[in-house]
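Predict the assembly for these two chains.
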Amino acid sequence: MGNIIQRLRSRTKPKYRTIVPNCAVDPEISHSHKSHPNHGYLSNKIQTNRYSVITFLPKNLFEQFHRYANLYFIFLVALNWVPEVNAFAKEITMLPVIFVLAVTAVKDAYEDFQRYRSDKKVNSQNCRKFSSTEKRYVKTDWHDIHVGDFVHLSCNEIIPADILLLRSSDKEGICHIETCNIDGENNLKQRYSVKGLDTKECEFDPSDFHNVIEVEQPNCAIYKFKGYIFENEENKIALNRDNLLLRGCVIRNTDFIEGICVYAGHETKALLNNRGPRYKRSKLERAINRDVVWCVVLLLFLCFFCAIGSGIWLADYNTIKENTNLVPFISFGDLDKYSPLYQGFIVFWTYVIMYQVVIPLPLYVSVELVKLGQVYFMTQDKEFYHPESDKRLECRALNITEDLGQIQYIFSDKTGTLTENVMEFKSCTIGGVDYPHLPGDEESSENDIDSKFSVPSRNSSILENLRLEPALQRELSNMCLRSLDSVELVIPRHVQRVQEFFLLMAVCNTVVVSHHPHEDNIDESGFLTDPQFVGGIASRIDQPLDKYSRLSRSSSPSSSQDPRDSLTPVPSEGSIGGSSLLSDMSSRTRYEAESPDELALVKAASTYGCRLLKRSPKTVVVWLPAEGEVELEILHILPFDSTRKRMSVILRHPLSKEITLYTKGADSAILSVLDKSFKVDEEYRLQRDQTTEHLTQYAMKGLRTLCMAKRVLKEDQYKAWLVDYLVASASIEEREELMLKSFCDIETGLDLLGATGIEDKLQDGVPETIAKLGEAGIKLWVLTGDKQETAIQIAYSTKLFTKKQEVLQLNATTKEEAEDLLRHHSEQISKDYKSSLKEHNNDTSTTVFREYVLVIDGTTLAFALTEELDPIFLALCQKCKAVVCCRATPIQKGNVVKLVKERLQKMTLAIGDGANDVSMIQTADIGIGISGQEGMQAVMASDFAIAQFRFLLRLLLVHGHWNYFRLSNFAAIMFYKSLITVFLLFWFQIYSGFSGSLMIDSLYLMLEHLLFVSVPPIVNGVFDKDTSAEQLLDKPHLYKAGQNSKLYTKWTFGIIFLDSLYQSLVIYFITHYSYTNFGVGLWEFGTTICVCMILIILLQIGLETNSWVWLQWLFLILSFMVFWMFAIVSNAIFFTFNPPSNPYWVMENTISQAIHSCIAIIVCVLALLPRVVIKSIQFTLFPTDIDIIKQQIQETMTTEEKQDVRGYDNDNVNTTGLVNAQTMQTSDSSNMNQDNASSSRYNEMKISNNDVAAHKRNTSSFLVTKL
Amino acid sequence: MAPGTPSGSPPGEKTKNRRPKDTKFKQQKLPAWQPILTANTVLPAFFAIGVAFIPLGVALLVTSNNITEFVLDYTNCENSQQPNETCAEFFENVNNTGKICQCQKQVDLPEFKGQVYMYYGLTNFYQNHRRYVKSRDDNQLNGQSVGVSSLNTDCDPYRTVKGNDSEGYAPCGAIANSLFNDTFTMTFNQTVQVNLLKTGIAWVSDKSVKFKNPSNWDHMHKPPNWARPVWELDVNVTSNNGYKNEDLIVWMRTAALPSFRKLYRRIDHSQAEFKDGLQAGTYNITIDYSYPVTAFQGTKSIILTTTSWLGGKNPFLGIAYLVVGSLCIILGVIFSVIQLKWGKRVGDFGKTFAKSGLVKDQSIW
């Protein structure tokens, strides 16, 4: 609806909307009134709920009737109103429809109510808008904001609407915002207040602002915004996207801002970008749909069969044409209707109605209910709770819970998924000298400075594990800018390099410093808090800075004492100064960085005393150990991009006015642009080679490396470049390319300073999780944008690769080369396998098959993903235990997943945490987002969100397995009870002239699947377990049942079919022949059959229940009681509501006869006998893995009982049973760290698993399919 | 949550602890019973069922055998007015529709002990046909003042008198119209009339609640096939007249199967000759044959039977119990063998096969 209105509006309205500040309008005029200049623009009220109390019923029904399955229902009901056809009472047929519609309606209503509540919560958030009557900002709810209102926001507040920034607490009019809620990027972005506006900063008063604003019509382009402010008649100021604050972003690093609302509510860019959730269909659901097709086939067959039977039966009574009275049970008003063909046709439709239950339509509704229950218990699982982030499992897709139990391939991101994405500065190499920062065993007292040095956005401190290198500190302690540029002085070149290295670490970045928690002088209700500032708001802006400078001055004397006086302990000197400063400042100093790497570097530099204090667009203030606070002029920042893979800053030295370019970036990006002296000069070359060597070492340790370089620019060099640069930045066409070229021009001839190694810590339990996933038969591929060495290193440290495996590295630069490599490796593996197979045949005991792992880089991957090569690539991948793709782009990640999903027809799962993983998360069958460091985008795109990688294990192995097992059973039961009902009705047709007659009261038939036998399967679908969580985690190979779709196969339906056919035969014919010579009435006959049927269905459900908790008992017994009582009570009341059956006292008369009970008992025994026999034979002779575990547990318990009886002390008796008991206890704590005890237990379990596997292979393949 | 708003709680508000509650229910750790079906565990159940079923089967069989039953098929009995013509043939003449064909049968009966019932049996009569079953109006039979126009339309074509929609049939519908109207009388040794009781043959609930007479019979007519209107069904006994007539009530309770029997009369055991049942001897049964069945290849019979707690004479259930009981015993024996031979502890299985297994699962090849 909204879209249509908008389209209409955009068609009829001009391209721009004109906004008049509301304070310039008479406050008496309401916003919706026509005379209000801003009328017609939506207010900030959010309404995402679709229904109101009044419109709910018609609107919801209308929507539901659009669904295909419901149309079938409606068709059946309509058919039943045709008098010739009607099989059931008209009113009764409507019961299922009403039920299904009602359940869906309740669900919709609930969801809508949730939306309404969240809307209400959002709408009632507070902010301050300018009131023209009170001449001040007043507290307002969000929904009260209208276009044209002035809004005042403080730091950390959420922006309520799209606001044009007019004023910021910052002198330059800069405001920082975090756009995480919109694009998932966690870094701060700068926005500028409208420049050129004639506002004397301090005197900006909304009531004086009468300028008319013209902006674009609302659109969904987040990165585009155009508009003008009319300063006066002829002068207009252009507005761009840097002036606009988007709804949903958060104000950071700025005390307060003020602006005017230009788009509100549903017209904001954030809401226009909203897209609905995707619908995924699970694999099991596809299998179920396949069997629904079989049901349709069966329905048609039965209907045709009966229709033809009816025609033949009727044709027998050809005498009817002569005398209608002769055959009293065929009664037609006129003889024209007597035609076997015509009656066959009519009765066909009757049968369509009668056999409608064969298509288990309640299945769809109840599957949703089951999944809802499963999701509830998944989110309630305390094992998924991560206390550090206070997050638990979040299910964003409700309909694919069972897919979790069938995963075959996992595609994982590395950074932030396997690792914490918390960077720790680990080591550095400067001028060819390695400073490894080995962890010391002594208590490093100097490190306690970090305890308060925490950054709010990145939770854990970087410096905890960093032990400062004394040598470095010594060399840094006399660092001052004077020494940096004075090569000729006594300072050795190496020391100078060290100092420059740290200066670079401190300044070459985009880290923003905030020194104090941002305070706003206006309180929530809009009153000025400090009377001192009432007069001049702006005067306090500088105040915190003053405070800061005072503090730094006061602390500087203590740190500027000559550090050389006290060499032992050396480190303490710099850090004492630091700590005294920091202890004063710690609560006020915050670094806010775009990337965690930068943060790590800045913090490491800071630990060494080289502290970044303040950054503004033009200047950067650093604190140097010897010199104190120094202000450097920033000429340019050349931001990072993925082509150059480096960033630079150009600074002007405050004293010598010398211009220096500092660059940091990927090793390849830096080493390729070094000064030519690094090729020519021996000393330089040595330094370069050593640095490269150290870089390789770092990479081997799994560290992320960055190279640091600088270049001193001569004034004329700089000026020449500046001209180019300005041309490039001013150009409109090909701006990007020109800028890139300009950047590359200046980033040449660099002087290599050194390199850093930053560790990206592994998350808890990652190796153990990967090992178990491997045992579960899940293949793990790591897709990362990181470089090859790091990726391989992480693969080793996560135990994805083991030393025994052979690593195949594919690095090709051309397509031909890639093809050769792929073919070569593929053939090699086959050859190796054949030879070892030969060996194996000769000598069975010693041969070990070699395992391979594959590493492929982005370039090669691009070739491998082409259509010609992907079959070879896939074949090779399948032969490898694990695959690592490094340097992969987001699109490539998605393509790899797509390739495996579509070409191999495998169930895929993608897990990642960043915006670069969104592509693969959306492509995979299941996307999992890690709600971690890199914003919400991955989580928003995902189906499930978890806090840690290790939770994946439990999610798949326990909940996935359970859900798959439960839904397989559930679907089977649903089909079973439909089929048995239909078959029972069918057998009766043979004895009722194929007339479409019913022996069971249609009321029972309709209520059967709604009330009598519907709840126990649902309860089982939510609660049943084939085995405990501990066992599933302990024996990952159990997961394979789901992977290979063993629990619901194409045979399952066949077995259900046969079983229900057999059972219906038993029920019908035993009853039939027992009642011969009895003078039984139609309804007593039907009642006995119905009782038997309900009883057998419930018993069957009981047989298929694996673990009984009281809920299952309760609902099973309750279901039968409900049916029983319903029959008794409804039959005790005389009513003629439901012709033809007038069930008065039928139930009472039936059950009072002994024959009824005799029939019920024998029917139950005989009907369930085959199932029990086959099940127990299967369990005894051909047990599945799960069965074996069950038996082991049972034996454990019986042994324990026996021992208790005998009074033995359990500790002294060592039996397998007890080991299992311990297993259950220890694994309960879910401690993934394998201590000695658990690893020995682990080996033991492994042996028994092998036994099981061996056993299974050797027993003949008996067709046993679990239902 | 609307997009564009933070998923976390607003700043300033302390974030709530989202740790799930550690209850047995929410953590799915409720105490559970995991039954497993092994040969070992089902064994006792099989034997128990076998041991229970076989005696029960014997008891059922004995009960069934103790019932004395006599069936007389009189479909083709001879017309006593016109020898050499069966009554079936008599009704093939369309002109004889509605007339009565009387016939007599002389039978030698064994001794019947206890209460004896007389049934009539019909075969090939589809009283369970969908249209037939529906062709009634329960409100009318309940004595509610149902106007002719509001009679159940399923009664057609026996709803209203042809050509006059204001006159209806009482009771309407095909079931009532086809009311079984043969009558039987029985004499012992040519002299002693066996008293047949007309009442006590229908369900008490039907007689007292379901079937009631209306206050008047205005605009109601007898169904076309009937000889008398419904209010003259039993003029002697008012409680058995009208809709409350038990023959009608029994007929209106449609049979489940195309071959059925319906209770016709009870033998009056207050007579001195029959106080212990029926004496063995020769009986004459006179049949007023007016119900044609040959058009649908049906047969008619008179059944005299005693009864038991199980109902009529039918050995099926007893045999079924015996068969199932024996089956369970056999299965029990088979399972014992399985248990002895293979039903060792599962752990032992592994050890037996461990050596022969391959080193690794080489499924990727």
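Chain B touches chain A through 123 residues (CB under 8 Å). The first strand of chain B starts at residue 69 and ends at 73.
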